[in-house]
Amino acid sequence: MRQTQDILKAAKEATASLSLLTTEKKNQALAAMADALCASRERILAANRQDVEAARASLGEVMIDRLTLTDARIEGMAEGIRALIDLPDPVGRVIDSHRREDGLLIEKIGVPMGVVAIIYESRPNVTSDAAALALKSGNVCVLRGGKEAYRSASAIVTAMKEGLVRVGLNENLIQLVEDTTRESATALMEAVGYVDLLIPRGGAGLIRTCVERARVPVIQTGTGICHVYVDASADLDMALSIIENAKTSRPSVCNACEVCLVHRDIADAFLPRLDERLASARAAEGKIPVVFRCDETALSLMPHGTPAGAEDFDTEFLDYILALRVVDSVDEAVSHIAAHSTGHSEAIISRDEQAIARFVGAVDSAAVYVNASTRFTDGGEFGLGCEMGISTQKLHARGPMGLCELTTYKYVIRGEGHIR
């Protein structure tokens, strides 16, 4: 097993060759990586089956779904890589420029970060997304996945490296940490001089640890206590459809709805229908029913409701569980979100333009939706090809992180013998 320090050294040494690649060459490499993923489909699926089988003893079904790869998901990974080919290269772009009165030209130019390290858990698709985004944005990536998905990640990286070699590039542009213990995560957090940016993707515990302990720059990502507020003027059929999608289409992801806030004026009409749609109807169809954690008012209207506990409005369930609260106004909904949100994604369902304006203006999250599901907070859905993660902080990057968010800038000043 290669030592993490050796992997970091190899990554740092590879940055110079990548920073000078043309857009055409990078796109050629991306196409080769996508093709290699598809050509290695059976090998990747076989490795993934081993991961899934080993994880069944420790992970629930929702998280097993997050870990599992299929033909369609591998094809989706390849398409995510190919989508980056058509996007503008952020390296070398002129972000801003101005010429002084004396003729001195000052330009602000996009440049790569250098080495981007990603610590993530049990989602194998992160492996290909991160590697492809890093390459197109001129960065070398160091991938440190969780032990549950290591075989899958290794097979994916092997395929992508084969793609790089096929077009004459250094396979060290993509690095996978072989040690899945806490020691390797700590090594990345403390890799001053080797790691230019650290991005944790996973649960609240992982993100908190990185933010608190890292000595290298960190972008806080991912944790999503996402809210949907159903306003007094909402179209109730629309609200039911949106909440069903936001909660049940894939509950294990960070953009799934975890809390539903309902205006008191429509609670009597809406909540029993929500109970029927997400609990009774799903059970009748052989699907997993949603469990409701309700405040006192909601509980009286939900046949399948259970009392909300002290932590239920501050929990990212990542499961078929939805916390419910009845509120008296859009302002009360906004106040609840301010107190409990992680700054990821929030939605309002309403036909009242004043209520919508109040919600959009006052809610301070990375993505704010009007009459749409929170499940769209995703790099692919936002037209970024794929994403490195979803930043819930405000400095440098916010929301889905695509190519531009993986670059920084420098100033280039052009003169003709100018002196000060």
Verbal overview:
- By secondary structure, the chain is of the alpha/beta class.
- Helices cover about 40% and strands about 20% of the residues.
- The chain is built from 14 helices and 16 strands.
- The strands form 4 sheets. The chain has a 7-stranded parallel beta sheet with strand order 10-9-11-8-7-12-13, sandwiched between helices. Strands 5-4-3-6 form a 4-stranded parallel beta sheet, with helices on both faces. Strands 1-2-16 form a 3-stranded antiparallel beta sheet, with no helix packed on it.
- Helix 5 packs parallel to helix 6 (about 125-135).
- The longest helix has 21 residues, at about 265-285.
- The chain is globular.
- It starts with a helix and ends in a 6-residue tail after the last strand.
- The mean pLDDT is about 95.
Structural class: alpha/beta
Mean pLDDT: 95
In helices, the fraction of residues equals: 40-55%
Gross morphology is: globular
Largest sheet: 7 strands, parallel
* Fraction in beta strands: 15-25%
Oligomer: single chain
What is the H/E order?
HHHHHEEEHEHEHEHEHEHEHEEHEHEEEE
Gyration radius, in Å: 23 Å
Strand order of the largest sheet: 10-9-11-8-7-12-13
- Distance between the ends: 55 Å
Number of strands: 16
* Helical run tally: 14
Which residues sit in consecutive blocks of at least 5 with pLDDT less than 50? none
